[in-house]
Amino acid sequence: MPKPPGSGPTPLVSVVVVNYNGGDDLERCLRSLGHQDPAPSEVLVVDNGSVDGSRDLAERFAAESESMRVLSSPVNRGYAGAVNFALEEARGAYVAVLNMDITVEPGWLGPLVGFLEAKPDTGAVCPLILLDADPGRINAAGQDIHVTGLGFNRWLGQPRARAGTHPLPVSGLHGGAFVIRREILDRLGGWDERGFLYAEDVQLSMLLQMIGADIHCVPASAVRHDYHLTMHPEKLFLLERNRGWMVLTDFRGRTRLALAPLFALTELMMWGYCMLRGPAFLRAKARTYRWLAAHRAELRERRRFVRSIRRRSDWQILRRLRWGYAWSQFVTLGRERGTRERTQIPSEGERAAARR
User: Side-chain half-sphere of 157: how many Cα atoms within 13 Å?
Assistant: First the structure.
């Protein structure tokens, strides 16, 4: 049977697996964690109100592991919210976050923790994330964060050899798989879960940049991701809403003014994409403006928080971000017409009820 919370020695790393109707993906993820030598000393599977039986699957894995526990949220709190839910139980000095559709390769955790132990100025690290359908190609070597808040998968589709073997600085972590210092999450008051889903890793990366914590990709560590670059209206709404929230709270007013031409260009591109995809996408994009206008008080409060933790200037941060667009990813999304089969994202009303 699993050990009760708090028993045994304090683990160095708490692995947090976020699940929402994960099915076979979750099984592959947990099985790969069980094949590690040494096995992680603490694995917390957070179930976000699944209805497909995957929580029971996780319970069966936990019953056979001394280090694994299942934490059940009665509602879907979103990705960052699930990690915050686990922080109440996690005991490690480092928190390793995995999405349910990640499969880890042997020895994935050691190089990540070793790098953090050796580099105190680094706040978070990512493994090399490979495409599960073609492990010889890269899903992401961290993220390239654009100065207008867009997040691009770094080296998406390129050969694995492109990443080399040495750690490399990146502007953003990839939310699918990363390790972060627990004390940083505590200092930030947890992971901002207001965005619910999508771009929350970009937001966290920007906060890390602000407090002076570097981010690296460590190619000696590798995981595989069941990934398909796709878009649907609710995803676009969340991405654009959360990007707008970040831009309006993280950058000073004079910085936004200086970057206004680039912001305008990005907005035109997004509207053009929505026109290409049809009325549902146009309505989703328009909703982002209404949402931001309705949350002006919260935006002001968030700006005050960002000012209180800032250690780097906007210019110091902008020098670390990407100024060009990843056109190939825009083209892929422009041609794409299907959606990956995932359970429907909860509505905005359901997400608001979950926060209460």
Answer: 7
d(CA 169, CA 45): 29
pLDDT at 36: 87
Q: How far apart are CA 166 and CA 322, in angstroms?
A: 21
Please tell me the pTM assigned to this model: 0.91
142 in Cβ contact with 125 (< 8 Å): no
**What is the pLDDT at residue 10?**
59
Helix ranges, 35-108 (H) = 54-63, 78-87
For residues 134 and 192, the answer to whether their CB atoms sit within 8 Å is no
- Any residues with CB less than 8 A from the CB of 198 and at least 6 apart, and which? 235, 238, 239, 242
Identify which of 190, 296, 216, 306 has the alpha carbon closest to the alpha carbon of residue 255.
306
Structure tokens at 195: 């965005």
What are the DSSP calls for 12-30, one per residue? SEEEEEEESS-HHHHHHHH
From the list 38, 41, 35, 37, the residue with the least C-alpha distance to 15 is 41
Q: Compute the distance between CA of residue 18 and CA of residue 176 in angstroms, rounded to an integer.
A: 10
The secondary structure of 205-262 as a DSSP string is HHHHHHTT-EEEEEEEEEEEE-------HHHHHHHHHHHHHHHHHHS-HHHHHHTHHH
Give the helix/strand (H/E) hosting 268: helix 260-277
Q: What are phi and psi of 331, to 5 degrees?
A: -65, -45
Position 220 scores a pLDDT of 97
End-to-end CA distance of the chain: 33
Q: In this predicted model, what pLDDT tens digit does every residue of 3-56 receive, in sequence order?
A: 444 445 557 999 999 999 998 999 999 999 998 888 888 999 999 999 989 999
* Spans of the chain below 70 pLDDT: 1-10, 335-356
Contact 319, 214 (CB under 8 A): no
What pLDDT shows up at residue 343?
A: 42
d(CA 188, CA 58): 30
Judge contact between 149 and 202, C-beta under 8 A.
yes
